[in-house]
Amino acid sequence: MDAENTKLKAFLFPWLAYGHISPFLELAKKLSDRGFVIDLCSTPINLSFIQKRIPESYSSSIQLVELHLPEFPQLPPHNHTTNGLPLHLNSTLQKALKLAKPNLITILKSRKPDFVIYDVIQLWTYGVASSLNIPSAQFFTSSAAMCSYFVHLYKNCDAEYPFPALHLRDYELERARKLIQRNEKKDEPEEENIMPKDGIMLISTSREMEGKYMEYLSEIIESRIFPIGTLVQDPVASGEGSMKIMQWLDNKNELSTVFVSFGSEYFLTKEEREEIAYGLELSQLNFIWVIRFPKGENQNLEEALPQGFLERVGDRGMVVEGWAPQAKILTHSSIGGFVSHCGWNSISESIEFGVPIIAIPMQLDQPMNAKLLIEIGVALGDVRNDNGALHREEIARVMKDVTSGESSKQLRSKVRNLGKNLKSKSVEDMDAAVEELKQLVKKSKIKNGSF
């Protein structure tokens, strides 16, 4: 660590979702390893989540900074997070965060960072930082493929997207257009929601996975893009129930089990739960299935599943409500496949630990992520009909193909090789991004006469 780096302070400002906060925390660790001092800013409810995940070795270099949002009747402080938040309140949370802009300005004036790294969801942060003469960079926490697709759809609605592998079905395209319309901020100044030209965007990806998508994205947003590798947390098993889960896995044969999880913020409908349950039953595979319900919904797990399901699968399956040590589970030798919603953090962990994916995307970026995985040969999918409904027979077929069928050896070989390549390149990519950030700070200081 050189003296120049130790003088630099980074201010990290993620969106208020665990799926965004986690990669920001991993980025904070990478920057800390290179001598930076980090301020990680979020709401108190989210900081309580982050605090538990900061190892002692980073306690002095990563500081947590509270940002208080204005209260709305339907959005008390314990709801200043997307975790468990009803979907219809998401836009209210975004509004509350932006209304906290004066508080953010006060914090930045007090903390005096050398640069800001902000979530792409909060493009208005660029204007805040610029008004204080603080250089900034964006951080996109999902795939370059997905980002390029949505930017293309927004800017060139009538032009065909240039990469046919990411072609969406009609029902997926309709959902994507509705997502863009829902997130259009018509009551806000347009300049606050435009990506700054000639800016810097960091993405937790690699050229091996997404080179052509990164190049196209850079072209259409007119910014330089720097991959920083996949940001994966250490596979540490902690919390109640971990030991029981790992002991259960120890009794299963190698590659005989699938891990099933749809992320922390998607809640399966009754119909989806049924099709997945029957798919697991038909597959005859061992499985661990993590099921989550929205906050405040007191559902009985047995009643939420098809009648007699738990008795019929017996010790072949374990259904866990709420939480399971995902990273730790994916490292276990009995895991032969990951039935995933294809959130970017889950994808990154699966590739890191060499586990092929059964892709069942649900919303947001997930359909594009799933198609990317299928294109690069580390996943299989196609378990829905033309209207988007899940089919139990197809779910069972794909699970068996991924774990022990004709495709299994090639999938496993590809995902393991990709994981190794990403590990070897991630340090080099991160170092290149850090050098660019240092140059950004230097140019800003020269411009402001403080160098």
Residue fraction in strands: 5-15%
Anisotropy-based shape: globular
Main pleated-sheet profile? 7 strands, parallel
The poorly predicted ranges are 1-5
Output the number of helix runs: 18
SS elements, strand count: 13
Q: Which percent bin holds the helix content?
A: 40-55%
Estimate the mean pLDDT confidence.
89
Backbone CA Rg = 22 Å
Q: Name the strands of the widest sheet in spatial order.
A: 3-2-1-4-5-6-7
Question: How far apart are the first and last residues' alpha carbons, in Å?
Answer: 21 Å
Query: Pairing-aware structural class of the strands and helices?
Result: alpha/beta
Which key features would you list for this structure?
alpha/beta, 451 residues, 13 strands, seven-stranded parallel beta sheet
